[in-house]
Amino acid sequence: MDFLLHFDRYLEALGPIGALLAMAIIFAESGLFFGFFLPGDSLLLTAGLLAYKGVPGFHIWQLVIGFTVMAIIGDSVGYWFGNKVGPPIFARPESRFFKPQNLAKAKEFYDKHGPVTLVLARFMPFIRTFAPIVAGAVKMHYRTFLTYNVIGAILWGAGVTFAGYYLGAFFPPEALDRYFIYIVILVVLLSATPTLLHLWGENKDKILARVRRQPHVE
Q: Is residue 218 part of a domain?
């Protein structure tokens, strides 16, 4: 918990190395099956805010380009992994770094939304990591995959980082330092709102029907 509360301070202290570490994390979370626990959304926002503060090594355009490229490459690695391993990956036993239930959720999400999943999943933790693996496992045409991969990477990698950067302009420096983690959490929730609303619209009838079937306790 202490790490999350002071995440920005660790990156700021590392300077240029912190920026490179952030890009490596974005790569890992985007396509390596053990990267599902990494803080992608908050990391992008944090990096953007640090760029606004003028922290050495955190230059907004370098971050935007770096994050976008790392997100594209990360997803491509995930696609390649899924394509090579194929359907047997769904029977892979659970381990410390692999949770079959997360892969199953990504597969269900992909079956429902198709290639658009690669864009929507960018804003959804866990599913973000496994979506490209599923796309590879089901043999999605690579050109189609790459198109949606690039669109999602730009909207997420560049969009969320810019959001963090311009967010700094709305808060005085003392408030930005004091309430940093709360600002990050708030914006992460806001960035996920369109996807959550989309999912609610798709599943509203099922959810309401399930609620109505629940027994009422007097």
A: no
